[in-house]
Structure formats: structure tokens, C-alpha cells
Specification:
The chain has 11 helices and 12 strands. By secondary structure, it is of the alpha/beta class. Strands 3, 6, 7, 8, 9, 10, 11 and 12 form an 8-stranded mixed sheet that branches. It has a two-stranded antiparallel ribbon with strand order 1-2. It binds zinc ion.
Length: about 300
């Protein structure tokens, strides 16, 4: 063996490694965070308030009153009418592997629940399931959610996080934009409120339809919200986009969303907004509702803009 060989005389030192899942580095401020602290803080960075992505199961738990969630239509499944393949992978196989990973019910979970004691029909896009893309199952579930809201006169709430229409279903996924928008108009006719909560990211066909049709549109801080990506827009209009373009705060400034609300305040904000709608619906208060809005003493009951 050569004299410079490093294999002799050096004691093997065990590699020090941090077990996976204990620490997470903040994507924005690079702070090292304890996973358990992050979970306790609703997956919001404790040093810069960056909102990490929240798994749908956890999102449901922090958004509705404990023990009130009753899920509907979990068994709906997508067909593969086009026999779609991408990179040699069949759409049916993609669906199967997503279901194995995330659970049944495609990219949307809808249920009846209560928020702040008020019964609501609430739905959550499941971003973990094929990027929360909207295909025929998602469209059908949203339509049914809105129909239940009209039938029982309960406000509808939707938490949106989606990459847009599901290309594997071709034109059928584009049709869901019209279908969900039509279902939403039934809510308006019946004067049942609909609140949209836009999470990071809400883009493509979902942003271009049902997500932006809320009576009240609330966004989480720094969420990407828009139809096409900034690069595509820059190439099309041949202009540089302003900083912060397509982020919640920019959209608030330009009147596209009504409120930007931190995740930790989301439930109380929703409850306050629901109470405000409920008060307007009570017949004895209906004539006085305008007065109530103009009376500064009532401000505490109105949806506040952050
Ligand atoms: Zn941070």
C-alpha cells in the first residue's frame, strides 16, 4: 500500500447527521426552525412570518370547529376519457399513485362544517393531489357543494390552491370553469354568500373562474395568484413586470382581493365575515343594514381590511 494512502491510521468517524424531519430551513429568511414549532405555529415561520404550504388535513383541522367536519362525495373518481399519456405514463396510473399517496377523493375535499358556530358548506383544494388541478371530479364536487349551500341556505367557503385545469382531461377540464361558475351564479340568485380564500398558489383555470368569483375574496400573505405565469406575460407584452406582481399584497393594492389575512387569523376573520352576512340576512335587520354599515360604532363587526 502506498505511504500516502489515507485508509491506514485514520479512525473512521461516524458521520454526524440531523435526523430528517426535525429541522426545516425557512425558504425566505433561511432561519432554521424546529418542525414541531412550525407545526404549532400553523406552519408559519416564527421569525419572518413566511407561510409554508399546509397539508390539507391540517388545513381542515385549523379552519373548522372541532368535531363538526362531515365530508361528502369522497368516493368520486376520475375516468380517463382521452386515454391520456404523458412521458409514457398513463393518466389512470397517475391517478392511482396520487390516490395512494394522498388518499381518495381527487384534488378537492368538500364537507359540511361549522366555523365560529355558523354552519357552512366548505371545500378545500388538495394541492398534494396532482397540484390541485381541476378535472371533472373537482368540478362536480364544487357544483355539488354549491347546490348543498343553496338547498340548506348555508354560506359556501372555498380554500383554493391549484395549478389550474387538469390537462390530462383536455377540454373536459376546461368545461369545469364554466360549470363551477354557473353553479356559483346559483348562489348569487339565492343570495347565499360565497367566500373564496386564495392560498399559494392559485393559478390557471381555477384563478380564472371560481376562485375570483367570491363575494368576499381573502388571500393568505405572499400567495401567488394569477392566470398565466409572469414569464409568459413578460414575453407576451414585452415589458418588465413590477416587483411583487401576482402576489396577494399587490392584488389587494389593485382591488383584486378584499383582504390579506395571516393563516393564524383566518378562522376568526371567516367567522366575523360570516356573522356579518348572517346579520344582513335576518329580515328585521335587512332595512337597517345600510345604517349598520355606516355607523362607526359597528365597525368591530365588519370584515376588516388588514
Ligand atoms: Zn422565515
Amino acid at each position: 500500500m502506498a505511504w500516502w494512502s489515507r485508509t491506514q491510521g485514520l479512525a473512521e468517524q461516524p458521520k454526524k447527521s440531523v435526523p430528517k424531519g426535525i429541522w426545516t430551513k425557512c425558504e425566505r429568511c433561511s432561519a432554521t426552525l424546529y418542525e414541531s414549532d412550525l407545526d404549532e405555529n400553523a406552519r408559519v415561520c416564527t421569525s419572518c412570518q413566511h407561510h409554508f404550504r399546509m397539508p390539507t388535513e391540517g388545513r381542515i383541522a385549523i379552519s373548522v370547529d372541532e368535531g363538526t367536519w362531515q365530508e361528502h362525495d369522497r368516493g368520486l373518481e376520475s375516468a380517463d376519457p382521452l386515454g391520456f399519456r404523458v412521458d409514457g405514463k398513463k393518466y389512470v396510473d397517475q391517478l392511482k399513485s396520487a390516490t395512494r399517496k394522498v388518499g381518495p377523493g381527487d384534488a378537492y375535499r368538500a364537507g359540511t362544517a361549522a366555523i365560529g358556530g355558523i354552519p357552512v358548506e366548505v371545500g378545500f383544494f388538495v394541492f398534494e393531489f396532482m397540484g390541485g388541478s381541476m378535472g371533472s371530479v373537482v368540478g362536480e364536487k364544487i357544483a355539488r357543494q354549491f347546490e348543498r349551500a343553496v338547498a340548506h341556505r348555508r354560506p359556501a367557503i372555498m380554500f383554493c390552491a391549484s395549478g389550474g385545469a387538469r390537462m390530462q382531461e383536455g377540454v373536459l377540464s376546461l368545461m369545469q370553469m364554466a360549470k363551477t361558475s354557473a353553479a356559483r351564479s346559483k348562489l348569487r340568485e339565492a343570495r347565499v354568500p360565497y367566500i373564496a380564500v386564495l392560498l399559494h398558489p392559485t393559478t390557471g383555470g381555477v384563478a380564472a373562474s371560481v376562485a375570483m368569483l367570491g363575494d368576499v375574496i381573502i388571500a393568505e400573505p405572499d400567495a401567488l395568484i394569477g392566470f398565466a405565469g409572469p414569464r409568459v406575460i413578460e414575453q407576451t407584452i414585452r415589458q418588465q413586470l413590477p416587483p411583487g406582481f401576482q402576489r396577494s399584497e399587490f392584488l389587494l393594492e389593485h382591488g383584486m382581493v378584499d383582504m390579506v389575512v395571516s393563516r393564524k387569523d383566518m378562522k376568526t376573520t371567516l367567522a366575523r365575515t360570516l356573522r356579518w352576512f348572517e346579520r344582513g340576512r335576518q329580515p328585521e335587520r335587512r332595512t337597517g343594514s345600510i345604517v349598520a354599515i355606516l355607523n362607526p360604532g359597528d365597525d368591530a363587526e365588519l370584515p376588516q381590511t388588514d
